[in-house]
Specification:
This protein is of the alpha/beta class and 337 residues long. It contains nine helices and 16 strands. The protein has helices at 29-40, 62-72, 87-91, 98-107, 143-152, 172-179, 218-225, 288-302, 320-332, and strands at residues 4-8, 20-26, 45-48, 53-58, 81-83, 94-95, 112-118, 134-138, 156-157, 185-188, 199-202, 209-212, 252-253, 263-268, 278-283, 309-312. Residues 159-160, 168, 240 line the site of magnesium ion.
């Protein structure tokens, strides 16, 4: 993670001049200052959060926000999460009632996104919110994200820094693989500790609703809020809840107990069934936080020929296991288009 690395396209093109496709810089105070200047100038900067790397752009700048959608190949009906340092900055964008303030006080900064009613005078690009009268707001805990947000001094729209529908990046190099020269600067803050995206909780209506399980568990939220609804699957309120998402190129098979020829295995717990071409352990000790942190990087590592598919052992459906299983089910779902 020392100094800057230029990643170049066309490894097979030895000797020829190859264009620089992405600049990865260690997230030093100096680089954080230039990242903030780039963001204020309307450029896109990828930075680590405690969940996954985000593709940041000025959320008040229509052109920057449009570039985020273009860089990801993301449908414009799918709104972005707006990142702020904390509650005070969130209050300028959205209407928070006592319940929302209590949830924010308990879980911010952290891996929780709140969908709230948008203030008319929020100054946000309408494109960032896909024209909805709500806005998704999150205060990330990662020190680099906090420093970038404070230095930028304005709300930053930041979806996960992957091409739409693909696996989210948990390392700076993943961002370069996904986005290449579509991002001006990638701040390298090492591996993201949580490894799965934030929980998305809708507090814009009377009943709190879980739109996406993530880094804050349903159990933690229920303890504070009581029973929490899940929206009807038929009409997802959160477009990121669409069936096929987080998908590797190879087919993914869940709840695997035995090997298919040429398949790789993501193992969980001390014992793995025999016969797989390659085995990576999400967690040998059966620790869900460790499995979450490893999931996306291991899916990427196994997503290559001559492997024929990726099988995953069963993961318990509680705590972070819900978010892991949610991502795995989407990664295994029939592909759109
Ligand atoms: O952990 C994370 O949340 C990461 C890091 C970078 O912060 N970001 C992230 O963003 O995962 P993205 O864009 O990949 O996912 C945002 C999710 C999508 O499912 C989107 O549909 C939903 O939040 N969302 C955003 N605004 C919404 C709104 N107003 N109402 C309902 N869902 C919304
Ligand atoms: Mg995403």
């Amino acid at each position: 993670m020392s100094g800057q690395r230029n990643l170049r396209r066309g490894c097979g093109n030895r000797g020829a001049a190859v264009p620089v496709v992405a600049l990865i810089s260690a997230a030093t105070p100096r680089e954080i200052t230039s990242a903030a200047a780039l963001l204020r100038a309307g450029r896109l900067v990828a930075f680590p959060t405690e969940t996954v790397y985000g593709l940041g752009g000025d959320a008040t700048n229509d052109r920057a926000v449009a570039e985020i959608f273009a860089a990801k190949g993301r449908p414009r009906f799918n709104p972005l999460i707006v990142h702020v340092p904390g509650l005070a900055e969130a209050e300028a964008l959205a209407v928070l009632d006592e319940r929302a303030r209590e949830v924010a006080a308990r879980f911010w900064p952290g891996p929780l996104t709140l969908v709230l009613r948008r203030r008319n005078d929020c100054g946000l690009s309408l494109l960032a919110c896909a024209g909805l009268d709500t806005v998704a707001v999150r205060a990330p805990a990662h020190a680099v994200a906090q420093a970038v947000l404070r230095a930028a001094g304005r709300p930053i729209a930041a979806p996960s820094a992957n091409r739409s529908g693909r696996v989210s990046p948990t390392e700076a190099a993943h961002v370069a693989e996904e986005l290449g020269d579509r991002v001006t600067l990638i701040l390298d803050g090492g591996r993201t500790p949580v490894g799965l995206e934030s929980t998305v909780l809708d507090l814009s209506g009377e009943a709190a609703a879980l739109l996406r399980p993530g880094g804050v568990t349903l159990e933690q939220l229920t303890e504070l809020l009581g029973p929490i609804a899940k929206p009807a699957a038929a009409r997802p309120k959160s477009p990121g809840m669409l069936a096929s998402h987080y998908a590797p190129s190879l087919p993914l098979r869940l709840d695997a107990a035995a090997a298919y020829p040429g398949e790789a295995l993501l193992a969980f717990g001390p014992l793995a069934p025999p016969g797989f071409a390659e085995v990576l352990w999400l967690s040998r000790s059966g620790d869900l936080a460790e499995a979450a942190a490893n999931l996306f990087a291991m899916l990427r590592r196994l997503d290559r020929p001559p492997l024929t598919g990726i099988a995953v052992m069963p993961i318990p459906e509680h705590g972070l296991g819900r978010a892991i299983n949610d991502r795995l089910r989407r990664a295994a779902a029939p592909r759109q288009g």
